[in-house]
Amino acid sequence: MLVARGLTRRFGMITAVDAVDLDLAPGDAVGLIGPNGAGKSTLLSLLAGDAPPDAGSFVLDGRSIAHLPLHARVRAGIARAAQIPQTFARLTLRENALLPAQHGARLPARAAQLWADEVLALCGLADKAGSMAGALGLLDRKRLELAKAVAARPRVLLLDEVAAGLTEPEIATIKALVDKLRDGRAVVWVEHIPFALRGTCARLVVMDKGAKLLDGPFDEVWSHPDLQRIYMGVADGRAA
Amino acid sequence: MRRFELAALCLAVPAAFAAAWGIDPGLQFLLVEALVLFLMAQMWNLAAGYAGQVSFGQQLFVGAGAYALFAIANATAVPVWVVLAVVPVLVGLAAIPLGMVMFHLKHAYFAIGMWVVAEIAQQLVLITPWLGGTGGLTLRPNGEPMQGFPEQLVLGLALFGSVALVVGLRVFLRTPMGLATLAMRDNPAAAEGAGVDIRRLHLILFALTAAGTALAGAMYYTTTLYTSPLDAFQVNWIVATMFIVVIGGIGTLTGPAIGTVLMITLREVMTAYGFSGDQYWIVMGLISIVTLLFLPRGLWPALQAVLSRPRATT
User: Fold this and answer.
1) Cβ <8 Å between B183 and A86
2) pLDDT tens across A82-99, in order?
């Protein structure tokens, strides 16, 4: 479904993302981890469309989208839930979800209303649909951020540390939610908390120094000596 | 459209006729001025309060509207009322390429940049002989003196137009593009992340507010029958507009109405008590400072907060 080849992004002398290849199929749930500065967030913003890549190709369902601006990327089928929820404080929750349904998913009026309500219900926000987003607590704002991304009906859903700052039971609710959202789409989830990814992401990608280091089934990658090495600083992985 | 919005539109028609034929000419002129200022303020409010396009160059479109009207009406046999309908379309279309250039400037640079464009336009008109240069233009449709009482028709138009604008804006804010505008007011980056083409939306709103302001300017100068560069492109237009919107409550549809009433009332009362000239501008400035210090969001949001505050039960 999504095929990225040689994605590269440089900032001056620094290569933040260095020739990364990534393939995603519907139903994939990919955890993306790596130490600080590994290039996870930059890769995510290349996929989301904040900036065009300096090199590389990026094809979604046979259509090259590497140079589409952000809003066109959303319409093409890639949506991101940001680490810090980017909600519309002076709009109701329903309106928050309606906007991406209308403009991202490009649904006609009635269908957009129904879809927005459905997404809110899916994210456990149905009872608050009429209240203002500005009045929400952190967990609900994270849920709304997810709802906004899902309401755009993306083929690829990018999650940028959506569990950060939450307690373990709260993370569990977000995990259950992501499980439900995986249907028919691919999910790429950047997270520092392995607990959040385990069980939800069947596949794990490890980045280090801008390059993709490991990519495979969760448990296999998780116990890989290289992973221990880059996280623990152990020379030859014997700590595993 | 909701029922009371439809009712407001229907009521506006007889009210416009009654105002046009039942009020003495002096009051008519005052009402025209108030309504024209309200229209301009509501347009600047849409641009600055909703779209975030704070501009100090609104007078550009006032002057453009006035000069487009006079130039076309004087040179052709097209009736003035038809020209009045065409002018906003022309100015709105001309605003699109201008917006494409000006949106490269952000925030304060955009605001000042628009002011510079307005000054350039004024200077260009001053040195253009066929636009009357420094002497200005008199409205002489097809070369003949203007017939009838333009303030009557303009008052009717402005009154109906003001009601129609508020109803239209309310309806607009409920459409998908209106929702995108409201979302852009809260968080432009997130709106783009929801699939909104922010650049296109900015251009559309810029063109619409330019068109509306040009129409208001054209209506005003139809009643004065005379325009000059120093008058039509004067900074006072944007100063009054900003006063009305900021004092009334920026980003609300009711605020500009309150601001307009306050400003016109203040001026009329002060002139009635013999304060001549521009002394009311001093008082307006003081009111602005006090309001912004104590009610930074303006009078209408403050009033709303008071009205909706739950009362103590004891």
Assistant:
1) no
2) 989 999 999 999 999 999
Contacts of A90 in chain B (CB under 8 A): 182, 185-186
Q: Is A17 helix (H, G, I), strand (E, B) or coil?
A: strand
Q: Which B residues 147-176 touch A at CB under 8 Å?
A: 176
Residues A80, A72: Cα–Cα separation, whole Å: 13
To the nearest whole Å, the CA of B198 is away from the closest chain A CA by 8
Mutate to test the interface with B, among A84, A86, A103, A156 (most CBs of B within 10 A): A103
Judgement on whether residues B186 and B268 belong to the same structural domain of the protein? no
What does the domain layout of chain A look like in residue ranges?
A: 2-60+71-232
Q: Same domain for B179 and B248?
A: no
Mean pLDDT along residues B209-233: 96
Statement to judge: residues B187 and B60 lie in one domain: yes
Same domain, B25 and B123: yes
Tell me the average pLDDT across A10-16: 90
Q: Which of A136, A192, A122, A204 has the alpha carbon at shortest distance from A160?
A: A192
Write out pLDDT tens, residues B93-103. Answer: 999 999 999 99
Classified by CATH at the fold level, domain A2-60+71-232 comes out as: Rossmann fold (3.40.50)
DSSP state of A127: G
Residue from A68, A71, A78 whose CB has the most chain B CBs within 10 Å, to mutate: A71
Write out the two tokens for B20: 């046009």
Quote the domain boundaries for residue B145: 3-234
Q: Tell me, what's the pLDDT at B314?
A: 44
Q: Which residue has the tokens 């009906």?
A: A153
Query: Is there a contact between A103 and B189 if contact means CB atoms under 8 Å apart?
Result: no
Is the CB of residue A24 less than 8 Å from the CB of residue A188? yes
pLDDT (tens digit per residue) in A197-206: 988 899 999 9
Confidence of residue B277 (pLDDT cuts 50, 70, 90): low
